[in-house]
Amino acid sequence: MATQSKIENLVIVESPTKAKTISNFLGKNYKVESSFGHVRDLPKSKLGIDVENNFEPQYIIPRKIQKKVTALKKIAQKAETIILATDEDREGEAIAWHLKSALEIEDDKPTQRIVFHEITKEAIQDALKNPREINLNLVDAQQARRVLDRLVGYKLSPFLWKKVVRGLSAGRVQSVALHLIAQRETEIKAFKPDEYWTILATLKAKTGEFEAILSKIDGKVISKLDLKNKSETDVIVEDLKKAAFKILKIERKETRRNPFPPFITSTLQQTSSRYLGFSSKKTMVLAQQLYEHGHITYMRTDSLNLSNEALGKAKTWIHENLGGSYECESKYYKTKSRIAQEAHRPTNPNLSPKEFGNKDGSKLDKDQQKVYDLIWRRFIASQLPAAVFDATNIEIEAKSKKTEYGLKTNGNILKFDGFLKVWPAKIEEKEIPELRENGSLNLKKLDPEQHFTEPPPRYNEASLIKVLEENGIGRPSTYAPIISVILTRNYVEKIQGRFHLTEIGTVVDKVISENFPEIVDTGFTAKMEENLDEIAEGRKEWRQTIKEFHDPFSEHLEKKYEEVAKLEPEQEKTNEKCEKCGREMIIKFGRFGKFMACSGFPECKNAKSLKNPPKEIGLICPKCKEGQVVEKRVNRKGRARGKIFWGCSRYPDCDYASWTNPTEPPKEEKGKVRSKKSPKPIPKEIGE
Asked: In this structure, how many other beta carbons lie within 10 angstroms of the beta carbon of residue 131?
């Protein structure tokens, strides 16, 4: 039997795509394999942490990865040198550490750890020339987070099972995110709108007309809520009609709008949500694909740092493609991250989004193209000069017999687009006619307008990530999982892009916030993140940090088991009879909120959802002529979730559906002829 040949260098990465890309840059004396992510983890069936033995984690090789680990172990035995090339963050460092243990790599076996910020030939070759040891401080920081989250989740969740209902779960960081959403819901419910008015004057000069808003009365600045009602406003309007208007002051100046810094993970997720409508999870999946194919730098970072090499590449592209006034000194951006990586950028700025596939044969799918376009534009724009505007501020005096009023207006004209050449943004240009100080004006009309203050908006993905980042909650790799888990567990639902607290989410937040306020306290959670950063920097010991949290938490939990009574929602009676056994149906409370169930449980297990029935609009279905047209909401995942549409009550027997209310006349835009084509059909199986 022939002996298998030796492998000179075995390179191990996390994903098959990354392995394939890297293998293109290495010679025949390298073999690149993938671990398919983590090879060891805490067991799912138990706590997996020996609390009595200094919080020792009890790692196992999950069953689904055992076959892969066995195969890697055999390959590793034949390799002369093993090179661990997992990602450069804490998670990647921990995977490298776990690989060494799971593959039973002996200490005397030549083993190297290499890191790189981008998957390009130059970066890989440079990393191979500069191997290092596994950074145990980063490993400890990852272990600390994993152990901390496991202790909270596996100890707090059973408390919810016992005191509320079985099947609920709690988490260290997800509970803070849920509490933020719950607090916003409370603010919205408690909000009482205030009425206020504004007065807009259309004024005429010899050179043209313009609008100005009332801003002062007898020298006192009018605040937003000073004009409280119509009667007060009408008195001022009548007096203004008799006033003499003249220009008091004209101030002209040049203003600049600086470019945005390059993306970090949170700002990429926020911008992708606003511009593209992508969830944070989808954005990170696409960014990872771009990174693993070598198109962008590492996709999880909270650093604004840009290397000199990257700045040089940006300068070259700007010189060759824009030139002239668009060239400027390189811009450096300050970063809050003490463990600096590098901001998101394209690995090759010459590959603009339009040139993909033309220069190097690379191809991106539609969604990858959109995310790459954002990253490329933001990087190039960050190195362009500021946009320049000509700004004009005008103060106007209006004197009546009784009162002296002040009005103001401003103009804004783009003089030089600067970074806006690459990063398009909505610019409201407002041109003011040529005016001179002390010139008189004629009043053409006055427009008093009623307004009401509005409650704070519910969070969407962008605004929730922003507030998490501002409060130091979580890190770049955690924003998407935080949002994913509270959606998956039905604590919140997305309706038209906004997070709405569910009934079960309200209960879970109430129980946790009232009994474990430190868990949902943003300051406490942010401090824990700082502790994890200090562990990563070697300034704190991870087991001691866990102990400082666990001991008081565990003692407090034991007290709450004794003090807190089980939440027993009253069983509400209904007029419905069970169609299976004839007993009365009652309303119960479960892990997904209230539902209708048979009072004969457990003998009869009949249960129903309590979703609101579709609302009839008094119209027979135009397609089948049998059913009623009812108002529904899209309940499948996607951008249309929560959107109202109208469909047949006999669905799925009749698939009639319309995005517009068939009882209302069609809206026609002025100057446009309505298309005779049928409206875009609504996909099947999207409604309640």
From this structure: 16
